[in-house]
Write a structure and sequence with these properties.
Elements lengths: L1 E5 L13 E3 L2 E4 L2 E5 L1 E10 L5 E12 L5 E4 L6 E5 L3 E4 L3 E11 L4 E13 L5 E13 L9 E9 L4 E8 L5 E3 L1 E6 L2 E5 L3 E3 L3 E8 L8 E5 L4 E5 L11
Parallel strand pairs: 1-12, 4-12
Antiparallel strand pairs: 2-3, 3-5, 5-10, 6-7, 6-9, 6-11, 8-10, 11-12, 13-14, 14-19, 15-18, 16-17, 16-20, 20-21
């Protein structure tokens, strides 16, 4: 009997981070981007006392307006991918580096290399299968421009305690928010990571707010520019005599 642990996160988590891990298995980096074509690598780390067998599988993915991630078949008609290995074993307390090259006929393009790792066991003796994604973005020649990023809405839902941000990418370029920050009157700053903005698409981001006051400012940092949006806070009505 086996247990499957799948770490293909929602698109909101397809961010520029140092590593993605589950227990004692790690992939780093989790997300990379390249202009035009890729020549890169990622490391798989096995920190268990079990040897791990790894099988690699290229997969596509799509992201809806709410940031939900769905797997799709790898588009081999558009993307040419070369991996240094398709399967291998990682000894206990060791790591393995996968090298790759990728190019696409039509840009931008995006996909993931899924690493399925087996060999570890739980304390009760169950076999564990872990799937870790390495996400690759192949960017177009012309970078996403600031004027293509439109903030369609910025509100605070007091019932749920969440700030709601509606964005639209009005261009055919792919870009990524590398860092973001929510604040109230310059205080109580809450970072909420990064996420992709796909070509000609909309994106809704909901951010839990636990800081003081009501959030009235959001800052989004891209590779070459930043977008700042402020929302007016209605003043409290004066006390009646």
């Amino acid at each position: 009997m086996s247990v499957v642990a799948r770490v293909c996160r929602r698109a909101a988590s397809l961010v520029l981070v140092a590593a993605t891990s589950l227990g004692a298995q790690t992939i780093r980096p989790a997300v990379t981007e390249y202009p035009l074509q890729a020549r890169g690598k990622f490391d798989l780390v096995n920190e268990t006392l079990f040897p791990m067998t790894v099988v690699l599988e290229p997969r596509g993915f799509r992201v809806d307006e709410k940031g939900e991630l769905a797997d799709t078949p790898f588009d081999s008609t558009n993307i040419e991918l070369k991996l240094s290995a398709m399967s291998f074993r990682i000894p206990p307390l060791a790591s393995y580096t996968v090298h790759y090259e990728a190019r696409a006929k039509q840009l931008p393009a995006w996909f993931m290399v899924l690493s399925a790792m087996t060999g570890a066991r739980t304390a009760s003796g169950l076999n564990v299968r872990i799937e870790l994604p390495h996400v690759i973005y192949l960017l177009q020649k012309d970078a996403l421009r600031k004027e293509a990023v439109a903030v369609r809405g910025f509100a605070f839902d007091s019932a749920t305690g969440k700030a709601v941000l509606d964005l639209e990418n009005t261009s055919a370029s792919l870009g990524r928010v590398l860092a973001s920050e929510l604040s109230a009157d310059g205080k109580g700053k809450t970072p909420f990571g990064g996420f992709p903005l796909f070509p000609n698409s909309k994106r809704r981001v909901e951010v839990p707010w636990e800081g003081p006051g009501t959030p009235d400012r959001v800052m989004l940092r891209f590779a070459n520019f930043s977008v700042e949006e402020r929302r007016a806070i209605a003043a409290a009505p004066p006390d009646r005599p």
